[in-house]
Amino acid sequence: MKAKNLILFCAMSFFACDGKLTEVLLEDNASAKGVLFVKSKEYGQVNSYPNPYEKNYSNIYRLTPLSSRGKLEQITFFDYAVIRDLAISPDAKKVLFSMKPRNGRYHIYEMNLDGSNLRKLTFGDHNNFDPEYLPDGRIVFTSDRTGERDEYERRPSETLHVMGANGESEYLERISFNLSDDFDPIVLKDGKIVYTRWEHHGPMNRFPLFSTFPDGTDTFLHYGSHSQNLWHVQELPDGRLAAIVSKNVLNDSGAVAIITPDIYRGDPDRGHSLKYITDPVAINHDKPTGAFRFISVADDTHLVVSYTRRYVESRNESEADYGLYLLNIETGELELLYNDPEYQEIEPVVIRTKEFNPMAAPTRTPNRNTARFLARSVYFRQANDGQDMTDKDSREIRYAVITQGIPTMSDDIDPISETNYERKRIIGFVPVEDDGSFAIEVPADLPFSFNIVNDNGETVVFKRTWIYGRPGENVDKCTGCHGDRGIHDGAPTIASIDSPTIVDPSNVSIDVSYCGFVKPQIQQKGCANAGCHDGTVAPNLQVGKTGSETFEQAYLNLLNYTKPPTSTYTKNAGSRYSALITALKDATHAGLAPDTDGSITLGTTSKPVDSTLRKWEYWIDLGGQYRMNQDLNCN
Fold it and tell me: Which of 54, 228, 236, 346 is the most exposed place for a label (fewest CB within 10 A)?
């Protein structure tokens, strides 16, 4: 029977629809002891904090066995609470979940599968989500307790934390330091954590899969491309991953796909490591084909999924009618397990035991509060990621500009700039060797990125993600820019022979924002009034505000000139193709030639790259920031 016909038949009955797939599970799969799930009146979008008003409440239910004929049992009886993020313990005796009581915050709770022995594991005036059991009994979860805000919507940013088996009062450690959200972790059989990361570095806006060890080491891209967003990942018995795939960043529902990350971990995808098992049209939300949300593994060939046949607009989730279905990952056929049309059946977790065979985390150097990174070659790059290719033959790359990402805190003022970039500052300049390698030592747990630069000071490639290392961590898996991760021939690099370049923000910190650099330059050159750009010569560089403007007009006018001068430039490559830099290099602006205002000193390395012209280039390449501090008026 075709999947669409089976669904239509099943939808006619409130409970019924016993088919071939269920019978197989009933007869052959004794390891699955039913399924826990949430019945909810409403359900919000990804990363949303639904308000538990009267019509929005939920409770946990159990269906035993895994069949449309199974017994339905209500496990919790909370009033006006919102429940999410169910996770079964490895021995299949307990369940973790996050819950938000009326007028409260999300916190993590644990109880027996029958609802007994309920206990609260997290506390405080912040939100805690997405708990999962680790092999040693501890719990990984996400929390917005840091007070940091994400890089786009300025909502509380969720990052990964680990707490003790008895809760945060026993043990608590933050293990991820992305500037936007890290969420939805699962723990693989090998003990590593795979999770969805919100990548919003400048113009980036995607949700790939990252992985890390429970101590936060070895954090790298696990799987993902610029064109796909991956949600609610689960591990299959054979080690492959099942995930929801969507191109809509506002909605975590879409199609179901099977991923084989070991084939290729680079970016973009080569087309054979991801296989759709449902209609891929659902990833665009442009046809009434229904959508999937949430996955739990039933056995080698079946998933339990939440599925709605109703067309779901990304911002109109109330139109959905999610029910529980069995999905055959080999045929794509669906079979109804349970659907109450008055509720949403979401967050399914199959009740089954789980065995771990954890790998050892990388050895860290004790008593060292820094992390060391070895980049093996800036010339090993993907050819179709939208950026310029580096010329290995000419050895054009001379150094890397290291930039620190500065989190936006809850008490910060808004906005920071008129561009997509948040606050960041230059904290180091590192030489790139002839073989394309460089090595740095940076403070632990500090989010940073880098641009690779040629002899002319032009940024050739931007690193479009945030990197960090744990105390004492030594990372040598940076095999190339957007290439296969962790795959190299083991040959030594030039940069690995000597000690890494020390990057110390307390030693070097360069503010190239409009308020910190550009405006003083305008004033020093006499361009803020009569003399050059006085309003009659474009761009108008008169500083100050004339009314209630958020930004000074000179800043907004200059931003228009940071772009390429003509439409013939198709690359978004910062200062390298900027009309402003082209103008500053001509005879009219000879006063901004590469004069050296000083030299940058990092350890024993000195490079005269702190020229006025280079700072203009850095201002563009760091995203045209307006300010670095709390002073919106540039005083």
Answer: 54
Region 195-209: mean pLDDT is 83
Which candidate, 627, 621, 518, places its Cα nearest to that of 201? Answer: 621
Whether the per-residue pLDDT at 358 is higher than 90: the answer is: yes
42, two tokens: 């409403």
CA–CA separation, 134 and 111 (whole Å): 17
Confirm if 470 and 385 have CB atoms less than 8 A apart. no
| φ and ψ at residue 587, rounded to 5 degrees | -65, -30
DSSP string spanning 301-361? SEEEEEEE-S---TT-GGG---EEEEEETTT--EEEEE--TTSEEEEEEE-------PPPP
Tell me: cis bond preceding 565? Omega within 30 of 0 counts.
no
pTM above 0.90, yes or no: no
Domain regions of the chain by residue span? 3-350, 378-635
Collect all residues with Cβ–Cβ distance below 8 Å to 474 and sequence separation of at least 6. Answer: 362, 363, 364, 365, 371, 372
Cα 28 vs. chain centroid, distance in angstroms? 39
- Which is nearest to 294 in space by CA: 135, 178, 130, 180? 130
- The two structure tokens encoding residue 509: 């910190």
Distance CA 290, CA 313 (A): 10
Element (H, E) at 222: strand 220-223
> Is domain 3-350 in CATH 3.40.30.10, yes or no?
no
**For the chain, first and last CA: distance in Å?**
72
- Is residue 556 predicted with pLDDT exceeding 90? no
| CA distances, 383 to each of 89, 206, 488 (Å) | 44, 20, 19
